[in-house]
Amino acid sequence: MSKIKNAIASAKERLTLGDEGLIRMLPFAAWLSFLALISIYTSHRADQKVHRIDELSKHRQTLEAEHTETREKLTKLSLESRVMRKAQALGLKSPEERPEKIIVVE
To answer: What's residue 1's pLDDT?
Structure first.
């Protein structure tokens, strides 16, 4: 049993850090902390960009739907029958004969 106790005691002495050991490891610990902070910061920035891209994608889809809807309305409004109805409501009549094409010779 004493061999085991001696082995444990010697391992404990080796693993115990004194003031000198802590001071030697401080720059390395600071470097690791700095790298961890950079890693956390870049992760958060990536998440923010993903959320912004998602938000812009939804906005683009909304605008595309609005554009399609407006184009359909314009197509329906520009039909000849609808234009004629609106013109009649204003008191305008469609011409009886077709217009003649004017050719300018220079």
So the answer is: 59
